[in-house]
Amino acid sequence: MTLLCLAAAMQLSSCAGDSSSSAMKAAAEAGRRDALDVMALDSAGMGREGGILAIRTRETELRAQGLDSCANAYARGAYAVIDSVLSAENALR
After folding, report:
1. How many CB atoms lie within 10 A of CB 68?
2. Domain ranges across the chain
3. What angle (nearest 5°) sits at the alpha carbon of residue 54, between those of residues 50 and 44?
4. Eight-state DSSP code of residue 13
5. Closest to 61 in 3D by CA, of 3, 23, 6
6. N or C: which end of the chain has fewer CB within 10 A?
7. What is the pLDDT of residues 36-61, one digit of tens each?
C-alpha cells in the first residue's frame, strides 16, 4: 500500500501550483490506476478496504496541501472505477 501512495505522489507532483488540464488528467489517471489496483484485490479480504482508505487518505492529503482541484480529479478518477467495479460485482450476484 505504501507503493500506492508513493506512485500517486509522484504522478500528482505536477499538480503543485498548477490547475492545467494536463495536471488534472494526470491526477484523474493516478486515481484510476490506484483504484484498479485496489479493486483487483479480493473483495472478501481486508486488503480492498485498506486500499480504499489509502485512496481516501491520498485525496485528503492533497486537500491539506491546498491542491483541491487535483484532489477532486484524483477522487473522480478513483471513485468512477470503484463504482463501476462494485456495480459489476453486484450485477453478478
Report:
1. 12
2. 21-91
3. 20
4. G
5. 6
6. C
7. 999 999 988 899 999 999 999 999 99
